[in-house]
Amino acid sequence: MGDISVDSADCGAVIRARLDDLALMPMGMGHSVVIRPIQPEDFNEWLPLWDGYNAFYGRSGPTALPPEITETTWRRFFDPAEPVFALVADSGGRLVGLTHYLYHRSTTRIELTCYLQDLYTDPAERGRGIGRALINGVYEQARAAGIRRVYWQTQDSNAAGRLL
What we know:
27% of the residues lie in helices and 30% in strands. It is α+β, with helices and mostly antiparallel strands. It has a single domain (37-163), classed as Gcn5-related N-acetyltransferase (GNAT) (Aminopeptidase, 3-Layer(aba) Sandwich), CATH 3.40.630.30. The strands form 2 sheets. A 6-stranded mixed sheet has the order 3-4-5-6-7-8, sandwiched between helices. The protein has a two-stranded antiparallel sheet with strand order 1-2. The chain is globular.
């Protein structure tokens, strides 16, 4: 697994990637964040982030995703037959961000492509470089899998996401 850490105390975010083990870097103000693969025991902290992500895109209350979608998405992260993956940002044992990505075939390429589908950081933690670290975590995972193309999209109205 590739792992990414980011030091936001430097000008711009300095990204350091290693393929062997997790690197833990300070994220300004004495806080540390580790970007790591999601674990089954993360569900109770992942769910509020997932709900926040969906609410941001208007999927809450009467327009919320059916529970079966959330349950199926969660199971896919741990099914080796599924090409769906998740990374989380862990700050002192508390999840503060998530990203979901998948590998797929393309009609214009022979090799697999990586689509970064979901990216979300706890609003109270924004501005610390966590979103960028999660994105770079996906890039590193794709590189480790031999995938050379990563892409993602966001709505025109998502100014912060578009800046990334």
